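Hello,

Our lab assistant flagged a job as stuck in the queue for most of the afternoon. It eventually completed. Since we weren't sure the result was trustworthy after the delay, we are filing this so someone can double-check. Below is the sequence as submitted and the structure that was eventually returned. Let us know if re-running is recommended.
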Amino acid sequence: MKKFLLIVCGSFVGVWLALTFFVITTVIGSFAIIGMSASGSTPKVTKHSILHINLSGDIAERSGSTGMDFISLLNGNTASSPALNVMVKAIEEANDNDNIDGIYLECDGLSASPATLMALRKALTAFKGNGKFIYAYGHAGYSQDDYYIASVADSIFLNPVGSVDVHGLSAVNRYPKRLLDKVGVEMQVVRVGTFKSAVEPYMVEEMSDANRLQQEVYMGNIWKSMADSIAASRNIPIDTFNSLVNGVVACMTPDSLIMSKLVDRLVYRDEMESLLKKLTEVDDDDDLNLVDAATLAPNVDAAKTGDKIAVLYAVGEIDPGKSLMSQGDAIVSDDIIEQVKDLAKDDDVKGLVLRVNSPGGSAFGSEQIWKALEDFKKTGKPYAVSMGDYAASGGYYISSGAQRIFAEPTTITGSIGIFGMIPCLQDLLEKQLDLRHFVVKTNENADMGVISQRLTPVQRAALQHMVEEGYDLFTKRCADGRKMTQDSIKLIAEGRVWDAVSARNIGLVDEFGGIDDAVKWVAKQAKLKADSYEVQNYPGAEDKWQKMFKNYMVMQYEQQLQGEMGFLYEYHKQLTRMLNRDHILCIMEIPTIQ
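-- returned structure --
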């Protein structure tokens, strides 16, 4: 344990030492980047151009929501998957642009959640049938996420020694209770909801039947949607496709992949380029005119004038612990409330779409956001929710009052439940570190919540009552928003997680669709004609240099800590998140789905 504490402290020192290096290299790197920009040429959309979409790494919800990788920039590598809203907009533009002959999907290890993949796949499906081609190529091979997108293509090409990895879905659930017991950390939990599994790993050593059931159901439905789409696009009977998946596709030979109709043709990269040149009437000695998504959709976040439909992004955990080392997207309730108030007062904003991609978080923060959205509705402006990968627990709380809820069939939602958790480090401090403590207090419960000692039965009962009151309020908000009885909501709540197909059947979701569908619905309610309004994204994208700085600092901290801790790093990260959160939460713990 002492070594563990020294590792953590040493990691913080390393981060601040890295700051000096960052300041120096930023100056050098800035000039290098400017030089690269000046010397490079931006592709222009001329006759026989191809929209080139590089599918690699993660896909952000919107442009500007992820920072630039400083080290990659210094190495001259600026390629990465565009944000979802940029890719969807670029595909729409490519459909209408006569200079774009088709789309080239270069698949290189994409990793994204099913709802994000489905939204991109739907945009590509809408592109088909206009006389333009969609070709996909896997150089090293296709990941499952790559292949799900690529399967919509007219033809799928693979390197002669490449592979296809399609294996279905599995969820990895980490249960750290034994580890916490060994180091003397006890997580004191109160909860409401049989299926509220976010705290289960801290209560028991093994997965409960209820948690296993809900994961089997929602993953089964999500995989059915994905598998049906792939099988239909490849003209393979669904039973045959699932048999192939069960037979370990990743180990199949390239020739077998062709015989199974999973791949159309084996070509090397230079042969793929020659094929595209022939298709677009480009001479062998000339270069292909590959246009990236950002070139076709450069201004998705630019300020608009006149009548607008506002799309407000609520992405990440609600009110997480705030520190230099926090990473990823987050929903800060105070910030989003101010944004909603501004949109309510803006006469040019005729309606609102709240884009929710959140597993939830603080119960208090969720209630405050819900209240701000209810106030927005009083303006008479229409308001809809578009759910992304997750809109669960607190993510559903803030969605529940919408006049219309849209989701992808593979969205994960529900998880209507609440819990409280206060860590107790008494055994760690007294037995492991030999640190004694003594409490002096004026009232019986003045020391409630002190992490150096356990809750008393009275204190635990009070906390349980508080959680039950919070659950009652949560279910009431959902019942009022969905125009259902509270008893009906409680029957489908209990913290249970649902896929959107099931959620629609039980009344938690209104309609399948993405952001565009929600925008069109809001515009119709606002009596706006199709060409009479603009879509404006909120909040404004974070400054790219500030984002890059933060990401660099986080990267240095995480890499050093991960190197020191090895396999314990994931458990450390999980515990740190729990310690930094509010004690009363409505959140779904997201399993690692692969």
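-- support follow-up --
The delay was a queue issue, not a problem with the job. The result is valid. Residues 2-39 form the longest helix (38 residues). DSSP finds 22 helices and 24 strands in the chain.
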